[in-house]
Design brief:
The protein is of the alpha/beta class and 391 residues long. It is built from eleven helices and 16 strands. Helix 1 runs antiparallel to helix 3 and helix 6 packs antiparallel against helix 8. It is elongated. The chain starts with 9 loop residues before the first helix and ends in a 7-residue tail after the last helix. The mean pLDDT is 95.
Length: 391
């Protein structure tokens, strides 16, 4: 199969990636990106479907060996609301938006795999190339599913990857179970009674109560959760008052809750609500809480993960695939897809000196383009060569 494939060159994939990087588009606004993806997929001779979740794209490729399993390969397309600080030739041309998470690279690697596989689809079954909008906080995977992704394109398994700063280029990590945490967000407003700062006894101090919550809420993790089940509760925004001599009427807090265990997730939310209610009762305040259950935990199917690890070893070499890395407390909406059918999400090293994800100096490492493309192609061969998926 591999000897007869026409492989896209590094230069072509790099040109696609740099073009996407110069023109970043955020959640559900990926119109230019989507149009370019459609143009390329069509030129490869694929059957292309558009409009899922607005800007989502699915391309379908049937193997020459006839009927067999149906799998999905997924890449995300959206950028972030970050102002780029890189001075490279392909830097963002849009102030306040940049590809600070490498989705430009993910899209380009999957495009390369689509072109390669379309040149000689020597497998049994069907491959769906999924180009997803709005991975960053907005749940584009969930939106595609609600728009009929798995009903219109039934799949027996689905796979994705993400570049990983700190992990050397030419290495990868595969987890046999949990890989990324569940992600909830909250907006909390504490409403008291404003007053002159010299006469606090005439008011109800929402500011003091908010400060107590910022220090007390993390204790719900430190002292109430099982130590072998990691969880994080972070208050990330605190807005209060605008002058020296006024006790503010209302305080606004925002933050996140992350964990892997779903019963634990429910317990944390309930204790979170209990702590807010108790604090408000103590200080005579009103609370307005918007707690949103966002992304579930991304949990790999162990059997399929082993296949992915073996394929990565073939591509990268012996000793280049980590199977012992600690799961990340960051989150990923590929979790919604992995809930629908067996799924695997792997990390591909972006370099030990790479800026971190979401950093204004981050850039996807172009050395990964042929590695990611070859992984996708080899994975299709390993999964669909014999017309059956691992049990």
């Amino acid at each position: 199969m591999l000897n007869t494939i026409q492989w896209p060159g590094q230069q072509a994939m790099q040109a696609w990636r740099h073009d996407f990087h110069r023109h970043p588009e955020t959640a559900f606004q990926e119109h230019r990106t989507s149009a370019r993806v459609i143009e390329l997929l069509t030129s490869f001779g694929l059957e292309v479907h558009t409009g899922l979740a607005g800007t989502g794209v699915v391309a379908v490729l049937k193997g020459l060996r006839g009927a067999g399993p149906s799998i999905g390969l997924r890449a995300d397309m959206d950028a972030l609301n970050v102002t780029e600080l890189n001075q490279c030739e392909h830097a963002s041309t849009h102030t306040g938006r940049m590809h600070a998470c490498g989705h430009d690279g993910h899209t380009s690697m999957l495009l390369g795999a689509a072109q390669a596989l379309a040149s000689h689809p020597d497998f049994a079954g069907t491959v769906h190339f999924i180009f997803q909008p709005a991975e960053e906080n907005e749940g584009g995977a969930r939106a595609m599913i609600e728009d009929g992704l798995f009903k219109r394109f039934p799949m027996d398994a689905v796979y994705s990857m993400h570049n990983w700063p700190g992990l050397p280029v030419g290495t990868a990590a595969v987890h046999p179970g949990p890989v990324m945490a569940a992600f909830d967000i909250f907006d909390l407003t504490l409403i008291g009674k404003g007053c002159h700062a010299a006469m606090p006894h005439l008011g109800k101090d929402a500011l003091l109560a908010a400060c107590q919550l910022v220090t007390h809420l993390p204790a719900l993790i430190a002292r109430e959760q099982e130590v072998h089940k990691p969880a994080v509760l972070s208050v990330t925004s605190f807005n209060a008052g605008d002058t020296y001599n006024v006790m503010p009427e209302a305080i606004k807090l925002r933050g996140t809750v992350r964990c892997f265990d779903m019963p634990q997730r429910a317990r944390i939310e309930q204790r979170f609500r209990d702590a807010i209610a108790a604090t408000c009762a103590l200080h005579g305040l009103e609370a307005q809480l918007d707690y949103r259950v966002s992304y579930p935990a991304t949990i790999n199917n162990a059997t399929h993960a082993e296949v992915c690890a073996d394929v990565l070893t073939t591509v990268l070499g012996e000793g280049q695939v980590r199977r012992d890395m600690v799961p990340s407390m960051a989150s990923e909406d590929f979790a919604f897809m992995a809930q629908e059918c067996p799924g695997v999400y792997i990390w591909l090293g972006n370099g030990e000196d790479s800026a971190s994800l979401h950093n204004p100096k981050y850039d996807f490492n172009d050395a990964n383009l042929p590695l990611g493309m070859r992984y996708w192609v080899e994975l299709v061969g390993a999964l669909l060569r014999d017309g059956k998926l691992p049990a």
